[in-house]
Amino acid sequence: MTWPDYVIIGIILVSTLISLVRGFVREALSLAFLVIAFWIAKMFFHEFSGHLTPWIEVPSLRMGAAFFLIFVVVWILGGLLTFLVAQLIDATGLSGTDRVIGMMFGFARGVLLVAALVMLAGLTPFPNDPWWRESRLVGEFRGVAEWLRSLLPDDLAQRVQPGAAPTNAQKPAGG
Predict the structure, then answer these.
(1) What backbone phi and psi angles, to 5 degrees, belong to 171?
(2) Which of 140, 141, 144, 159 is most deeply packed, by most CB within 10 A?
(3) Which pTM was predicted?
(4) How far apart (Å, rounded) are the C-alpha atoms in residues 21 and 17?
């Protein structure tokens, strides 16, 4: 195994352990409120930016500040709600089940994160480097990276090519 293999294992392990400690409900709600905060900020930043005119004169800066403020406020409110729901889960005695399901969620998130990194590596010269080609695990994530790419809009998907998987001829001896 090469250093990229250890990095891949580390990413998946850290994601799994974090979700084991936090539990599924906390992890799922955190992710949901992150998406909700982004969506609400995207929908309302333009209207809200008008309220910031007395303090911020530059329109682009005002819109950026409006987006950021809406995003942060919604995310904090989501965090408070997540905390309350997590307290309820802990009080009901379901925390063990929540943590085991959270561990599975964390593993899946780690796999998706690694696949996204493999996909984005196609934008770099990494796939041409020996350490990339000699990795035993990079090629295993190419299929998931291709699937992630298929979810992108066509114009973006054409620009993103997952990193080339090592072929059998390129794999190190004994592998």
Answers:
(1) -70, 145
(2) 141
(3) 0.73
(4) 6
